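Re: beginner question about structure tokens

> Can someone show what the tokenized structure looks like for a real chain? I only ever see the sequence side.

Sure, here's an example I had lying around. Input first:
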Amino acid sequence: MLTVSGYIINRERIEISPRFQGMVQWIGVKKGDAVKKGEIVVRLEDAEQRANVAQAEGRLANARVALERAEIAYRRAHDLFTRNVTSQEADDEARLAVESARASIREIEGQLALVRTYLEWTVIQSPVDGVVLEKLVEPGELVTPQSFGGTRGPSTALLAVADMNDLQVELDINETDLAKIALGHRCRVIPEAYPDKVYVGRVAEISPEANRQKGTLQIKVGIENPDRFLTPELTAKVEFLPTAP
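And the corresponding structure tokens:
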């Protein structure tokens, strides 16, 4: 039976980044803390966003007053037009003034929705149930959104979290043993720290590229039903059962 040792890892490390540039005001967690999906973990300074919301709300209130005035003016103009006191042009101008006022309201409502969204984005929540792997910033630091290029510069992420119910063992298989395994192959996973604990695993990933210098290929074995005894970076032994499913 093929047996190989490797390290327990999180299947996915999630780095929580802000949606826009801002200053960290408060961080409510530290490394090792458990977090729930939707839990508030970071707040950015929001004075500018609150001011923008108040300003947009004021513009919207003024625009609604302007619409009311335009509607009153149009009713008067239309009444005069129907009594042949004023021209069609005057009636059209009053009607178009109402349409313009309504368009202004729609525009400002859109602006208000946008600045309210930015205000909501100053409150940052955990996207998953998991554990904080790393706190990457401190209060008072300026942070920016992560770049699309995939390279993270200073202060582009706030926290790194991971789902501790989604663990794998990462290990290197000698290329001469590659024919003995396949995706979905059943395994036994035994952590070195707890040799009496045995977990069921399956081959979840086989690297498409070998390491020429080492003559190995990296594979990852997903662990079914991990518990509190398993943590990232623990050494684990993986026994590949004789028959694939």
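Each token stands for a local structural state, so reading them left to right follows the chain. The domain at 47-120 is CATH 1.10.287 (Helix Hairpins).
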